[in-house]
Amino acid sequence: MDRELAEFGRRWAKAELHGDIDMLDRLLAEDFRGVGPRGFILDKARWLERYASGDLIHDSFDWKEVEVRRHGDAAVAIGVQCQQSIVDGRDADGRFRATQFLAKGGEGAGDGNGAGDGWRLVGIHLSAMSEPLP
């Protein structure tokens, strides 16, 4: 896998796990859209607000089985997001197939040490996973 994009994925998952609003603010594009497993859509401000308000808390959050296809300054990453979480006081544990859409070139996407190298998460779409096919 592309080293830059693998590092981006690790940083993103760590920021989600810890509800690191400052890091997520740098990693998400200004026009970011997230589509949840039930079809709701959140813009960047609403995505971050879930952490700021304490409405979303992760006990664990993992981004694995990731396949990345890079297309110049854009990329698509498909992986599995596993989480043990609470949303609005309700259990939100789950395993989701996630498709991430990334673009390179936005300001603030690095961490000050060059990691991430300008990649931003433009969008994510989550689908709940059932049992794997035989």
Structure description:
This protein is an alpha+beta fold and 134 residues long. The protein contains three helices and seven strands; from the N terminus they run ααββαβββββ. It has helices spanning 3-18, 21-27, 44-52; strands at residues 28-35, 41-43, 56-71, 74-87, 90-91, 94-104, 119-128. Strands 1, 2, 3, 4, 5, 6 and 7 form a seven-stranded mixed β-sheet that branches. Strand 3 (56-71) and strand 4 (74-87) form a beta hairpin. It is globular, with a radius of gyration of 14 Å. It starts with a helix and ends in a 6-residue tail after the last strand. Residues 7-106 form the DUF4440 domain. It holds the Pfam family DUF4440.
Short description:
This protein is of the alpha+beta class and 134 residues long. It has helices at 3-18, 21-27, 44-52; strands at residues 28-35, 41-43, 56-71, 74-87, 90-91, 94-104, 119-128. Strands 1, 2, 3, 4, 5, 6 and 7 form a 7-stranded mixed beta sheet that branches.
Please state the structural category.
Answer: alpha+beta
CATH top level label: Alpha Beta
Q: Can you tell me the CATH architecture? A: Roll
Computed CA radius of gyration, to the nearest angstrom: 14 Å
Cα-to-Cα separation, first versus last residue? 26 Å
Give a count of the beta strands, DSSP E runs of length 2 or more.
7
Number of helices: 3
Write the layout of secondary structure elements.
Layout: H1 3-18, H2 21-27, E1 28-35, E2 41-43, H3 44-52, E3 56-71, E4 74-87, E5 90-91, E6 94-104, E7 119-128
Parallel strand pairs: 1-7
Antiparallel strand pairs: 1-2, 3-4, 4-5, 4-6, 6-7
Helix pairs in contact: 1-2
